[in-house]
Automatic annotation (TrEMBL):
Signal peptide (from-to): 1-21
Domain SGNH hydrolase-type esterase N-terminal: residue ranges: 28-179
PANTHER family: SGNH HYDROLASE-TYPE ESTERASE DOMAIN-CONTAINING PROTEIN, THIOESTERASE 1/PROTEASE 1/LYSOPHOSPHOLIPASE L1
Keywords: Hydrolase, Signal
Name of the protein in its database record: Acetylhydrolase
Pfam families: GxDLY, Lipase_GDSL_2, Lipase_GDSL_3
InterPro entries: Ester_Hydrolysis_Enzymes, GxDLY, SGNH_hydro, SGNH_hydro_sf
Length: 602
């Protein structure tokens, strides 16, 4: 991330509380297209590889794809910009090159922007903006709460760009004196969606209500929207571009543009489906592919001609899918019409979704994709993965995640130690601004090859997010140590905490089935000793259910009366240097020692 030096000062005048005066607010402006690092998320190609800053296809594609596809690739569908600011207001101003509205889709969806905030607990909140459409379009967001209760560092914002128009110029303004920090494109592998006008976003009322945007928020992953209105036809020229994207999942949802009425023969449709899958599988042998049936038309029950169109093309999809599976194509999945299950009010014109329809699409996709990615969620908060930004005064959560991912790749550890601030501020790399037990970490953990995976203020659901987003991928640890849950005490019941821990351990085991799991009971803390003792009994039972080892080294901190010994703590929660030394001595016997080196033959 980078703190932006904002420039181009102007004055915007807002009505005051009286009719006799006006209050001037001086804004400073940031142009994301001029950033020296990629900040426009949703682009598979950027920088010098694209013709215009907000394009969706590389410049080289102009020579290969049809003109209609190329023209639509200039639309900003699916693009978003992330930044952080502590401000009560902000303004977005920009220009577009096309018509601002369509007969069946409002200007707010065709040409508007949409702003969401992410609070320090990882929850997404929608921001209402006052808009004015003209040669320059302006959205003004006022009355924002500048900060969450945890700190004064502001929050993350995500600005979704127009679905059916091309952005030629855009700036984001905040009041003078406010620091706007740009956030780079997330390094998660994206979900890549090749589709039709429905994927592009018709007829969402605003960009954040396109089903691709909703899905991105649900899964908290980048999404590449390659929806081309009327022109998503599984064409080789576009399919050949897809393997250039290192995707988490490829989605092919083009059947609405392949019905008989567009003049493509049934055999050709089957061929396009099969050849598209084979082309992807040849260059991306292990990336999952999801084929999607035509979701139908909402008047299909009353219009036999329209019903026949989607029925025929879905039968072709089923035939192609069965043939591909019989040929041994792996990690190929299908989302059927019955699973999408649109209701009567889900479409504007029988073809394009309303906001209700967009939500139903996104829900169906989530139900299908979570099993493919092995990212289940549960009904309680401890089973729903979230990021957080609660301890921003001490460190940046997203930066630590990225640094740890880089370290896991460059120096794969033998043991990973997941936790919260108690682990984070013990010692090890990446270095923390706070470290209360460096000597004991260096003496006991470092020789065993332990990677500190603690994040200050983390809860169970935050470790679940990290598990789903790469922190147990690409290497093979001998042991996973887990000590998490103390920060859930204020917001969750004991049952929710213990059940959430079981859910988390299963997620870890799914990614590292050969790693031993060591669950550490929640450490005693001031005025919570009795509750934690009872909770640890529940956690011990959960450990047995998930075949994990359970230990309670935290008992070293208790006096004979069951209360904590304050001599071992800095604040009744976090151990001091001596506390960490005592804790390490109790923990060491349970950590896996390195395998002895094989003896040399004589």
């Amino acid at each position: 991330m980078k703190k932006i030096v904002l420039s181009l000062f102007v004055f915007l005048y807002l009505p005051s509380l009286t009719v006799f005066a006006q209050q001037a607010v001086e804004y400073v402006w940031w142009n994301p297209a001029q950033s020296d690092v990629p900040v426009i998320e949703g682009q598979a190609w950027s920088g010098k590889s694209i013709q215009n800053p907000y394009d969706r296809l590389p410049a080289q594609a102009e020579k290969s794809v049809r003109k209609e596809v190329w023209n639509l690739s200039h639309n900003a569908a699916g693009l978003l910009i992330r930044f952080r600011a502590s401000t009560d207001q902000l303004v977005v101003r920009y220009t577009v090159s096309g018509k601002q509205a369509l007969p069946h889709m409002p200007a707010t969806g065709v040409s508007g922007v949409d702003l969401y905030a992410v609070n320090s607990d990882g929850n997404t909140l929608w921001c209402a903006g006052k808009y004015a459409f003209g040669d320059t379009i302006q959205y003004r967001f006022t009355g924002l709460e500048p900060n969450d209760p945890y700190h004064q560092k502001g929050r993350e914002y995500r600005l979704y760009l127009p679905l059916y128009n091309s952005v030629t110029w855009l700036e984001i303004g905040v009041p003078k004196g406010v620091t706007l920090t740009s956030l780079p494109v997330r390094n998660d592998k994206p979900i890549v969606i090749y589709g039709t006008s429905i994927a592009q976003g018709a007829c969402a009322s605003r960009p954040g209500m396109a089903w691709t945007a909703i899905l991105g928020r649900k899964l908290d992953r980048p999404v590449i929207n390659l929806g081309f209105s009327g022109n998503g036809r599984l064409e080789k020229e576009v399919v050949d571009l897809l393997p250039e994207i290192d995707a988490k999942l490829y989605v092919l949802d083009c059947l609405p543009n392949l019905v008989a009425s567009v003049g493509i023969k049934p055999d050709e449709i089957k061929t396009r489906i099969s050849e598209s899958v084979k082309a992807l599988r040849q260059k991306k042998p292990s990336t999952p592919i999801l084929l999607v049936e035509h979701a139908g038309y909402t008047e299909g029950s009353l219009n036999p001609t329209r019903k026949q169109l989607y029925t025929e093309v879905n039968e072709l999809m089923q035939q192609a899918f069965a043939q591909l599976k019989s040929e041994g194509v792996q990690k190929l999945y299908m989302l059927p019409k019955s699973a999408i299950n649109l209701t009567n009010d889900a479409m504007v014109d029988g073809t394009h979704p309303t906001d209700l329809g967009m939500q139903q699409y996104a829900d169906a996709y989530e139900r299908s994709i979570r099993p493919i990615l092995n990212e289940p969620i549960g009904e309680i908060s401890t089973m729903k993965p979230l990021t957080q930004y609660r301890d921003a005064r001490n460190y940046d959560w997203e930066t630590r995640h990225n640094d740890i991912l880089a370290r896991l790749k460059s120096k794969p550890p033998r043991i990973v130690f997941f936790g919260n601030s108690i682990t984070h501020f013990w010692g090890g790399e990446p270095k923390s601004t706070l470290a209360n037990g460096i000597d004991s970490w260096n003496a006991s953990m470092e020789p065993l090859g332990v990677q500190n995976m603690g994040y200050g203020w983390d809860r169970i659901e935050n470790v679940l997010w990290r598990t789903y987003h790469g922190e147990l991928d690409g290497y093979s640890p001998a042991q996973i140590v887990l000590m998490i849950g103390t920060n859930n005490l204020q917001s969750n019941s004991d049952t929710e905490i213990s059940d959430g821990l079981g859910f988390l351990v299963r997620a870890m085991q799914a990614r590292q089935p050969n790693a031993a799991i060591l669950m550490i009971g929640i450490l005693p803390r001031r005025q919570m000793e009795t509750r934690i003792a009872a909770l640890n009994q529940r956690i011990a039972q959960v450990a047995g259910e998930v075949n994990a080892t359970f230990i309670q080294p935290g008992t070293v901190f208790l006096k004979a009366d069951g209360k904590i010994d304050e001599a071992f703590f800095s604040d009744g929660l976090h151990p001091n240097a001596e506390g960490y030394r005592q804790f390490a001595a109790k923990l060491l016997p349970y950590l896996k020692a390195p395998e002895p080196a094989p003896k040399a033959r004589k």
